[in-house]
Amino acid sequence: MQETKKDMQPLAERMRPQTLDGFVGQKHLVGEGAILRQMIESGHIASFIMWGPPGVGKTTLAKIIAKQLDCPFYVLSAVTSGVKDVREVIEKAKSNRLFTQGKRPILFIDEIHRFSKSQQDSLLGAVENGTITLIGATTENPSFEVITPLLSRCQIYVLKPLDDEDLLELLHRVIKTDERLKNLDIQVDETEAILRFAGGDARKLLNIIELVSSSNRGETIHLTNAVVTKKLQQNPMAYDKDGEIHYDIISAYIKSIRGSDPDAAIYWLARMIAGGEDPKFIARRLVISAAEDIGLANPNALLLANACFDALQKIGWPEGRIILAETTIYLAASPKSNSAYLAIDDALALVEETGNLPVPLHLRNAPTKLMKDLNYGADYKYSHDYPNHFVKQQFMPDELIDHRIWKVQENTAEKKLGDWLKGLWGKKEPPH
């Protein structure tokens, strides 16, 4: 029998529900009489953000809403989209309203917590004036990751991991209704292992079912704890074809380093090694973590992380695991600062807001006579000609002369830098 295009889709995609009645879980939001269901059934929804772990139905719910309301539906991923993409969608939404009987378009932004401040700012006007209805999805606490003006214009709905009852409902539904699986003889003998590995994530559950059933040769498939465990041990990443577990574990790893827990960091490192993760991928993330999370609190961390990356390429595997372990423990045990990370993001937002401000005349090069006549470079003071290799002068554009970007954080190394600058500049030191 020739496979259809739908048959070739992953099980998780084939089983994506099209209506609220087919949606599993989140009864506190979409069950009978629940707030989101009432909004949808009324035909009018306000902008909102869904906060919850992966695989609990955030994207599916957004698609169901758009389908039920029969309105234009635009999707952006915060990972790949920038301010330009947001503005293009908003303009498209404005023009299309003429052809959609006044139905307000929905803009769904996945991983909205990854949007920078300037990207989130670009949404404000369209959300406020009703050009679009914003539906955001995030796995991170929106209170920390979403700007206050946008939060104030959106409701926040918390989505919960699916409980065992929800997962079992989905398990039996998929076996009975999926076009491919319903023709197989699948016997559910035990469920403890599949529920444990799924961990409240519907997508993981479906990927496990797909993995277990993929080797069928016409015989009865017995779904047991032993079968599930054996399949996942043979191919620990295979049950998650979208790489969800890959991203979950690297996230746990980096967050353990950031949280100064060397034991947890080493555990997640071991999970990645056992799962066949690319060592260079791990090393690259260590370099990023050293700069983003440790930063100026311990600049040696970046040197060690970079040395780790270089050493891995020279030493290879399996000895490279020792180098990764040493670096992991050092980074986890180091004092933490994200001042450099915050400073560059604030600076980029400032550039976006203020545009191309002119360079002060005394800081400009003057390679030609005309430039010299225009006072390019005039009155510039060469720092090395002065005591302590420092002299007070203006380096910021005139419009930002009193603006502070880098903020000293509470750690010994950084406070030492801040005190040094305070000694040079006096009141002009970076604010604490």
Task: Give an account of the 3D structure.
The strands form two sheets. The protein has a five-stranded parallel β-sheet, sandwiched between helices. It has helices at 11-14, 27-30, 35-42, 58-69, 83-96, 117-128, 142-145, 148-151, 164-177, 192-198, 202-214, 225-234, 244-258, 262-274, 279-294, 300-315, 320-333, 339-354, 369-373, 412-425; strands at residues 48-51, 73-77, 106-110, 133-138, 155-158, 186-188, 221-223. It is of the alpha/beta class. The model is unreliable at 1-5 and 237-243 (pLDDT under 50). It has four domains: 26-158, 3-Layer(aba) Sandwich (Rossmann fold), CATH 3.40.50; 164-234, Orthogonal Bundle (Helicase, Ruva Protein, domain 3); 244-333, Zinc Finger, Delta Prime, domain 3; 351-428, no CATH class. The longest helix is centred in the middle third of the chain and has 16 residues, at 279-294. Helix 13 packs parallel to helix 15. Strand 2 (73-77), helix 5 (83-96) and strand 3 form a beta-alpha-beta unit. The N and C termini lie far apart (70 Å).
